Amino acid sequence: MRAMVLDAPGQPLRPADLPVPEPGRDQVLVRVLACGVCRTDLHIRDGEVRPSAGDAGYPVVCGHQIVGERQDTGARVGIPWLGWTCGVCRYCTTGRENLCDAARFTGLDVPGGFAEWTVADPRFCLPLPDAIAADPVAAAPLLCAGLIGHRTLRLAGDAPRLGIYGFGAAAHLVCQVAVAEGREVYALTSPGDEAAQAFARELGAVWAGGSDESPPVELDAALIFAPVGPLVPAALRAVAKGGSVVCGGIHMSDIPGFPYADLWGERVLRSVANLTREDGALFLDAAQRAGVTTRTTAYALEDAERALEDLRTGRLEGAAVLDLGSG
């Protein structure tokens, strides 16, 4: 089968011809129809996020926003970042499987979707509603950008005035849900990125500007999707007393020091770690009710490295998706 392989951190992905994987016990074989390209894939490619097995975990087949077809049932399913958990630890048994210390992640610890075929634990394959499954390229970003974005939104509570820092794949989906819920969205993009700001307003944001600007009102909560540590104190200064700042990425550059006064006033700073299967059910339901649409740029499998570079440089709007013949 065709695949794109990461041999070591920092190296470009290379095309490879690999055997079709044999499903192990408690696994199913899945034909990949489409796979989203996530910023986490970029962190993996750059070595900022590494397999739990260390150097022994390479080579890696990235990709964790998979829409595929189970070969045992023919059903179309979504395969997200969380690929396996132990099921018995204090996190798994209290509804927090996203924090399991033994967790394995799709496209990092187990083969991902930058390939024509993959294997997955059926317990972690999300059933897709027919309307979503019908268009695998459009559905793929929902499997991480959507799920993580929605978890980030939920952890911000019922904030009526919401700031979103970084307007890429996750933000363009969560913005639609937030607007459908009646919230005011204020989008903060890379300074000077007028295209992203126009995109945010198109999706219902009441204001859009650069992250070097201050929103025109005090925010009740801020969601940070850009992996830029200095945005954290900026967001804390933008939220009102009692507000929350939620960091939605798996990796972020270092957060600079900031005065306690920026946190004081019962402001809350927290991170989002991974996702749960319940997140999948909640978001897919919310996405249908909100009529969420995805803005995608499709790439061939062999162009995965170019897709990562376009993501790195901001040369695409919305989400990048590898189309492996999704019809």
Biggest beta-sheet profile: 7 strands, mixed
Order of helices and strands: EEEHEEEEEEHHHEHEHEEHEEHEHE
**What value does the average pLDDT take?**
95
Shape: globular
Strand content: 25-35%
Which class of secondary structure composition applies to the elements?
Answer: alpha/beta
The helix tally amounts to 9
Fraction of helical residues = 10-25%
Distance between the termini: 18 Å
CATH fold-type name of the largest domain: Quinone Oxidoreductase, Chain A, domain 1
What are the segments in which pLDDT stays under 50 over at least 5 consecutive residues? Answer: none
The CATH superfamily name of the largest domain is Medium-chain alcohol dehydrogenases, catalytic domain
Q: Number of DSSP strands?
A: 17
Q: Do you know the CATH architecture of the largest domain? A: Alpha-Beta Complex
User: What is the highest CATH level, the class of the largest domain?
Assistant: Alpha Beta
- Total number of distinct structural domains: 2
Question: Radius of gyration from the CA trace?
Answer: 19 Å
